[in-house]
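Re: beginner question about structure tokens

> Can someone show what the tokenized structure looks like for a real chain? I only ever see the sequence side.

Sure, here's an example I had lying around. Input first:
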Amino acid sequence: MTTATPRTAVGRRGRFGDWPIAVTFLGPAVLAAVLLRLWPAARAVWDSLRSTPFGLVPTTWVGLDQYRWLFTDPAFLNSLKVTALFGIVVNPLQIAVALALAVLFNERIRGVGLMRTLVFLPVAIPQSVSAVIWAVAFRPDGPLNGVLALFGLGGLRYLTSPGQALASIVVVVSWIGVGYWMMFLIAGLKEIDPNLYDAAALDGAGRWARFRYVTVPQLRRQLAFVLVADTVSNLLLFAPVQILTKGGPDGSTDVLMNDIFERAYTEADVGAAAAATVVLTAVALAIVVVQFRLLSSGKD
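And the corresponding structure tokens:
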């Protein structure tokens, strides 16, 4: 009596091997990446090389002339300057405040859970809603000027002053983002071995020395992530600016994303908007590469 030989694993898989399983699991992710990332990027580059006045077809091939014209446009150059100034101010501010709060809330103090929740709460609120809340606070007869009046101080113009509008946007964005970055840093603090602090204390290191020589080096990985992610996030700032100032007054808050929006949907200049988008993407990639290189050199 003969017995049937069991089918091998190869036989069960068929002549295509593991490909059907791999396609089943990876297919949706690859399709999403193509449709939501690669195709829009390729279309933006294509549109940036063509002139589309009033957003109508047929379009005209202009090549790199779109970029040459863009870099002679005072409005675009101003948006580059405003975006750079905003990033230089808001990125260190957000990271410094987030790190300070993370260190504070990592201590065993009474009510620390509630305080963490209150700081993190703005993250759960849509940016548009946060912008509306701050629009009320920034009103000439709003609560902020009311507090100043209690101390005998004159009210500020906030969103209507070219010298104060960008600082007001920095406050709004920091209020939204600090709690988010704080949670990443708190997670990093939880991973630090307490024995390192005990050893530093035995060596006579004070609180500041322990923070400088133990906390910061051990948080290098989390700080690197927060720095890169925060930079990219602030480069893409749009909703608070569009709701609160629409890039004004006098272009003092006209960041790149707002400039792109105005070109695409107000001026109907799709080609210029696409070119500005390509420039924004290139700037973001360049900044991220530089940051990674600096962080890598710091490890050595």
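Each token stands for a local structural state, so reading them left to right follows the chain. The longest strand covers residues 50-51.
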